[in-house]
Amino acid sequence: MNTMSKNHKAGIGDKCFMKESMPKRNPETNFIERQKILDLVSSVEEIEQVA
């Protein structure tokens, strides 16, 4: 339970960070964020395949 709540808080923090970085239109930051999202999506797909 504790790890879940920690992960949830981290997710909220990531969203705040993304909102702050978006108006700047920094291509490098946007690329890094896109890579993070792609990594999350692929890891979720792997978990679904196992389950």
Notable features of this structure?
rod-shaped, mainly alpha, 0% strand, 86% helix, disordered N terminus, 2 helices, 51 residues
Structure, explained:
By secondary structure, the protein is an all-alpha fold. It has one domain (2-50). 86% of the residues lie in helices and 0% in strands. It is built from two helices and no strands. The longest helix has 24 residues, at 27-50. It is rod-shaped.
Mean pLDDT: 69
Q: Roughly how much helix do the residues carry, as a percent range?
A: over 70%
Order of helices and strands: HH
Number of strands: 0
Instruction: Give the end-to-end Cα distance, rounded to a whole number of Å.
Output: 20 Å
User: What kind of oligomer do you see?
Assistant: single chain
Residue stretches low in confidence (pLDDT < 50, at least 5 long) are 1-5
Structural class: mainly alpha
Radius of gyration: 13 Å
Shape by Cα distribution? rod-shaped
Concise structural overview:
With 51 residues, this protein is mainly α. It has 2 helices and no strands. It has one domain (2-50).
